[in-house]
Amino acid sequence: MTTTTTEQPATPAKDGAGAEGPVFSVRGLWKVFGPRAGRIPGGEYADLPPEELRARTGCTAAVRDVSFDVRRGEVFVVMGLSGSGKSTLVRCLTRLIEPTAGVVEIDGEDVRAMDRGRLRELRRHRAAMVFQHFGLLPHRTVLDNVAYGLEIQGVGKAERRARAQEMVVKVGLAGLEQRRPTQLSGGQQQRVGLARALAVDPEVLLFDEPFSALDPLIRRDMQEEVVRLHREEGRTMIFITHDLSEALKLGDRIALMRDGAIVQLGTPEEIVAHPADDYVRDFVRDVPREQVISVRAAMRAGDCGGADHPGALAPDAIVASAIPVVMDVGGAACVVADGRCLGVVDHERLLAVVAGIDTSTPADSPSESPPAGSAQAEGKAAV
Ligand SMILES: Nc1ncnc2c1ncn2[C@@H]1O[C@H](COP(=O)(O)OP(=O)(O)OP(=O)(O)O)[C@@H](O)[C@H]1O
Fold this sequence. Notes:
Strand content: 15-25%
CATH class of the largest domain: Alpha Beta
Protein name: Glycine betaine/L-proline ABC transporter ATP-binding protein
Domain ABC transporter: 48-284
GO molecular function: ATP binding
Number of domains: 2
Shape: globular
Bound molecules: adenosine-5'-triphosphate
Helix content: 25-40%
Organism: Streptomyces polyrhachis
CATH architecture of the largest domain: 3-Layer(aba) Sandwich
Number of strands: 12
Radius of gyration: 23 Å
Oligomer: single chain
Structural class: alpha/beta
Strand order of the largest sheet: 6-7-8-3-9-10
Keywords: ATP-binding, Nucleotide-binding, Transport
Distance between the termini: 43 Å
Order of helices and strands: EHEEHEEHEHHHEHEHEEHHHHEEH
Number of helices: 13
């Protein structure tokens, strides 16, 4: 293991003046595995379906002409079935896998142009990865495992122990500092990995299916932990999962992948309420819509005509929470923001959401969605 002195990243501070614009910006990204991969992007084979591409060239386009931005402070979920390209895409962001073509920028800096030193700094300071198997060091205590990332950064012993201790408390492991990884449950081990990634205070946390090996209850605990940490810190997170309910629960926005391409990118509500094609529609078919779709999307034009605002629903409340309110009011309930009536919802509108009947009006357009990382966006899907 090499020990380096603490590098001073020339990165805009998380909350600093330079912190405008997206964190990651990706344009026309390709990763092709196979012989002479470079001929595929933009070439005569670029549009072939995966099977045919493999048969004719021996190549697999794991990531296929993908473009997106990751906004500052959002939880950006990359979702798709096994083999759709999620891991390859996220590894291309820090060049753990070398892209074949396209542009990847972090804070406006060209990642593909980075030399080895700069790349190392990117992975250590700016975009820390939390893996499914955390690779905890078995002979070290919890505290020393958490401090490990700081140690390879060259942070002094007293400081790294203090910071590690802080992170141990943050992820709910206080009292277990001196245990070894084998003396911890799976969920606790995940927390150690999370604390280790947090300890280096990265600008972005990248999670590669971190919870897929956990049993459902512990998994739910960990998901709630991530939501809590995100709410407290507002740190940008990129989260890979093949689990739709996890994506809906955690994501401010979700990129849904199929065969290396992004078939839809949107908020959970946009994806569930307005699937881009039959593939996405099929994917979200079993989602309880009332747990994802907001009152804002369900309401119709109207005014309660007074200052009482019966029901007084917030526009970002989910439909499930509006049902008892409408029952209680015994008629249309008012949707209110800043003391102003935005519209009304009634039994019919709520039932239409549950039944999957599209009643959208221009007022429900996706541009109305709350900004990522806002308090509203924290009203994430409850599935
Ligand atoms: N080193 C490699 N060489 C050849 N093909 C690869 C390589 N790595 C990945 N692939 C292929 O690229 C495609 C995307 O793989 P990737 O691991 O990114 O998918 P994934 O969505 O993360 O899948 P999973 O959920 O199973 O981890 C798959 O068809 C896979 O077989």
